[in-house]
Amino acid sequence: MAYALREQPLEAAPWQQLQQLLNACFSRPPRDVFERLVGASHRRQRLWIAAGESGELLGIVMLSPHSKGGHLDNLAVAPQARGQGLGQALVQRLLTDNAATGPAMVSLTTRIPEFFAPLGFQSCGQLADGSTAMLTLLPQAPSRIAH
Prior knowledge:
The structure is a single chain. This protein is an alpha+beta fold. 25% of the residues lie in helices and 34% in strands. The protein contains four helices and seven strands, in the order E-H-H-E-E-E-H-E-H-E-E. Helix 3 (86-99) links the parallel strand 4 and strand 5 (104-110). The relative contact order is 0.15.
C-alpha cells in the first residue's frame, strides 16, 4: 500500500475524516477521543497524517509540545492499512522531526508497549487504568523499521 506522510496544520485538518478514523480505531472506552482532540486543538499541537494515493486518510499521530519535547497522542491507523508499517512510519517521522530541533524527550501512554519499544521508548510504569507510561530521549537516532 502506497502512502505519503506529512505534517498537517490543525487549521487545515480533515476533521470529518479524523472523526471517522478515530471512531474506527478506538472501539472501546473512552469513545470520546475525537471530542478530546477537538477540545485540545487550541493548543500548539502538531499533527502528522498518512494519506493514500487517492487522498484517503490512512493514519495520524499527534504531538502535544511542551518545553522539553512533547507527549505523543492519538496514534491511529485505519483498519485496512494496519500491519504494513504505517503506524511505525508515523511515529518515526514524529521522532525524526522533533530530533531535528535538538535534545528533547517524547512521552506517551499506551496499552501496547511492545509496539513502541522497538522505536526507542522505555517503560516508566503502569497507570491505574492498565496503560503503560513510556518515554524516549532525543536526539536518539530512532531505529529504522522497514515498511
